[in-house]
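Most newcomers find our protein records easier to grasp once they have seen one. Each record describes a single protein and holds just a pair of labelled lines. A learned vocabulary of local backbone shapes supplies the integers on the structure line. Nothing more is needed to start thinking about how sequence determines fold. The record below serves as our worked example for the rest of this section.
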Amino acid sequence: MEKIVTTTMMVFMVLGALDRAVFRNRFGLGNEFVKGLNSVGPLILGMAGIMCSAPVVGRLLLKLVTPLFSTIGADPSIIAGTCFGLDMGGYYMTASMSDDPAAIMLGGVILSTVLGATIAFTIPVALTLCRPEDAPAVSRGIVFGIISIPFGTIAAAMFSGLTLRYTLINAAPAFVLAALLAGGMIFFPQKTLIIFRAFGNLLQAFIILALAAAGVEATLGITVIPGMDPLADQLEIISMIGITLAGAYPFVHVLSRILSPVLNMIARLMGVNGPSVTGMLACLANPLPMYDMIALMDERGKVLAMAFCTCANAMIGDHFAFISIAYPEGTVAMFVVKIVSAAVALFIAALATKKGGKT
């Protein structure tokens, strides 16, 4: 399946390049092609530092969590994917902490692409970018997304050949954290937001400083942080992610134009307005455009869109581009956990809200 998806992205990458070079963006694909390539700079800023420092951070995390995880028989490497997004260190830290393919699949791929991404990105970014009056609906949607993650995790683990017993034991700390997180979002929303904003700010600061340290080591040969992976290797991976995104963005552009009548019908069936469904489609490539559209959504749409986006964000964009390059055998598991979790989240959110814009 990963070959089919990758080939599709490359076809649209070529179409985007042709539209840009030959047709002067007549079909709108050229700009999307350039947008994908332009993402390389921000990706270097947001990913390279944590990718280089993954072995160092992994060893530190092992020392901190091994006693706790050992008491329940869980692999301590799972903590990385629980707290860090797939492309924000979750995968690389897990891989540096464990040689077990099952742990890498469960923690480094399945959990990191949903729960880790929610903790490290969705909560601090979505709640910071949305208007204060939209925060309650956005928070509620995130909660519905979080409580759906265990369903997708189990489905993806089973699909990947992991046993139910192994999954429940090793994902137990993540499920407990998800429950605590959902409770915090419900009962202490402001305090929870403060905590995760602080976590997000500290993470971003560390990533930037680690990038600077890796840059000094790569160019001057001066080791600032011992044990880091070479920067050049990470830049090669990130460049390939940019190539994949240069196909993913044109693909989503074409998809949105083709499905425009269908999206309007889906919006009516779901009882939400057009921007709500359009935002859900946009988040499949990158969640930031959807966050910008929240103010245009009705109240029910905000909840449903955030529930969906919490689980499905970047499924055919950043996360797919990363996993297809870094760990291709995890591509299908990434799709399964996102699709199942997002479907459950939408179902729960739809039951918990009323049509007509009220929640």
